[in-house]
Design a protein that fits this description.
The protein is an alpha+beta fold. The protein folds into three domains: about 170 residues, 2-Layer Sandwich (Beta-Lactamase), CATH 3.30.450; about 120 residues, Beta-Lactamase, CATH 3.30.450; about 60 residues, Winged helix-like DNA-binding domain superfamily/Winged helix DNA-binding domain (Arc Repressor Mutant, subunit A). It has 18 helices and twelve strands. The strands form three sheets. A five-stranded antiparallel β-sheet has the order 2-1-5-4-3. A five-stranded antiparallel β-sheet has the order 7-6-12-11-10, sandwiched between helices. The relative contact order is 0.10.
Length: about 375
């Protein structure tokens, strides 16, 4: 099969998996072959501990369990995901030089036993509380993630992302347009269908309750309006873009924070209804986008990205900061990250300077202070 035909067939398989999740493992196998790797994973991670991959091939159950229980925090890409834009394709060697990578515990204890030397990865979705990624693992026989591998990943990642969004929000495999409203009413999150002008065409039971309370959302002139002017402006931009297609999701983002009058924080996730089976389901309501709204968890920690941006930390400085908080002493941090104690000391000095602290205990307190997105708001 020629390259163009193989790509076309793979894209078709990706969308089939959106409707039939049992197909994902076969899709990941073909994706790994297309990008030239030994395995692949499609996964999500919340900042809460109980996070697990969705689907994967090429990694044994033992090492998969180890990764999410212990080695994720040591993975150079683990921190890097917080800095990426949705759709950006990178590899581990973009974050840490390979000669440093092979000295890390992550490589020695997790990657090397499986023959992995690198991966090519992309961020599929990112919100205030979680992110989802897609990665192809490069084996020793494949070599490091090079530009041809990144190029092939860029060809398929928009389709993987769209398929994930389709499958995440609604179970289209068992849904018919005639029963769309009934299905949506079973969701605990508030759900609204809107057109490109923010006009409400449907709200599920939870959404109607939110509108009746009018603490952070209400209906004005038949349109969905956020009480918070900044959030309302952001939502209107996304709704307008949704009328043009799914490509706008990655540009505008799909998560919009909304502050209520009471000071509580909510998050609105916007999904365009402009392609494939979603369009067929949405036609009943002439809707351009679905909006899913839920309250932000009080105990949900702020992403490390926020800490890094607040104090202008580099990715390496952030890795050292998080390692110090989680692991402790400089020598242990050096061993875990695969760098010298002197390098840890240098980066730690920069962290102290930028954060205005001078003790490890102060850093622990600083990170803990970011643990609640509502801290200082109530």
């Amino acid at each position: 099969m020629r390259g163009e035909e193989k790509l076309s067939a793979l894209i078709g398989d990706i969308y089939d998996a959106a409707l039939d999740p049992s197909r994902w493992e076969a899709v990941l196998t073909k994706s790994a072959e297309f990008v030239q790797g030994a395995g692949a994973a499609l996964w999500g991670r919340s900042l809460n501990p109980a996070s697990n991959p969705y689907y994967d091939v090429g990694v044994s159950p033992h090492y998969k369990k180890l990764y999410f229980e212990e080695y994720f925090r040591l993975d150079p890409l683990g921190v890097a995901y917080f800095f990426l834009d949705v759709g950006e394709v990178i590899s581990s060697s973009d974050i840490v030089p390979h000669d440093e990578f092979v000295e890390t515990r992550f490589y020695k204890e997790w990657a090397r036993p499986q023959g992995f030397v690198d991966n090519v990865a992309v961020l599929l979705e990112k919100s205030a509380t979680s992110f989802a990624g897609f990665a192809v693992f490069r084996h020793e026989r494949n070599g490091l993630g090079d530009e041809p591998a990144r190029y092939r990943m860029r060809l398929i990642c928009p389709h993987v992302r769209r398929a994930v969004l389709i499958g995440k929000v609604v179970e289209l495999k068992t849904m018919e347009a005639a029963t769309f409203a009934e299905t949506l009413d079973g969701l605990s999150a508030g759900m609204f269908l809107v057109d490109a002008g923010a006009r409400l065409v449907h709200a599920n039971a939870a959404g109607q309750t939110m509108l009746a309370t009018a603490d952070f959302l209400h209906a004005a002139g038949g349109r969905l309006v956020a009480i918070d002017p900044q959030a309302d402006h952001a939502l209107r931009d996304v709704f307008t873009a949704a009328g043009s297609g799914d490509a706008a999701v990655g540009i505008k983002g799909i998560a919009v924070p909304i502050k209520a009058r009471s000071g509580e924080q909510y998050v609105a996730h916007v999904l365009p209804l402009t392609s494939g089976a979603r369009e067929r389901a949405g036609k009943t309501y002439t809707a351009a986008a679905a909006v899913f709204v839920q309250k932000a968890a009080l105990e949900t920690p702020v992403p490390p990205e926020v800490i890094a941006r607040t104090y202008k930390l580099t990715p390496t400085e952030l890795r050292v900061l998080l390692a110090v908080v989680e692991i402790g002493g400089g020598s242990d941090v050096a061993e875990a990250l695969g760098i010298s104690a002197e390098t840890v000391k240098t980066h730690l000095g920069h962290v102290y300077e930028k954060t205005g602290t001078n003790r490890q205990a102060d850093l622990v307190k600083l990170v803990a202070g970011f643990s609640s997105p509502l801290r200082g708001l109530t």
